[in-house]
Design goal:
The chain is of the alpha+beta class. The protein has four helices and three strands. A three-stranded antiparallel beta sheet has the order 1-3-2. The radius of gyration is 12 Å and the shape is globular.
């Protein structure tokens, strides 16, 4: 179970890195949902999970029209050899 969670989280990190690169300052929940192929409601959970692992720093926007910002703190290549 723990191994599949890690695989999913690595996939999420890859989706973010592929779509946005390493530093993103203005992105809305709809763009994140599209990149992560999930609902806007699930974006918060995914971003919190990756942030808790220390893989990203994430500044969620407060309110409906406020954009999000995030930065990848780790390189995907570092983890891909463990899978």
């Amino acid at each position: 179970m723990d191994n599949s969670a890690t695989t999913i989280q690595l996939q999420r990190l890859n989706q973010l890195e592929t779509r946005f690169g390493r530093n993103v300052n203005n992105v809305d929940k709809f763009e994140l949902a599209e990149a992560l192929i999930c609902s806007t409601r699930n974006v918060t959970n995914i971003m919190k999970s990756l942030s808790a692992l220390g893989w990203i720093t994430w500044n969620p926007g407060r309110g409906r029209a406020i954009n999000q910002a995030f930065r990848l703190c780790t390189l995907l290549k570092r983890y891909s050899s463990h899978g």
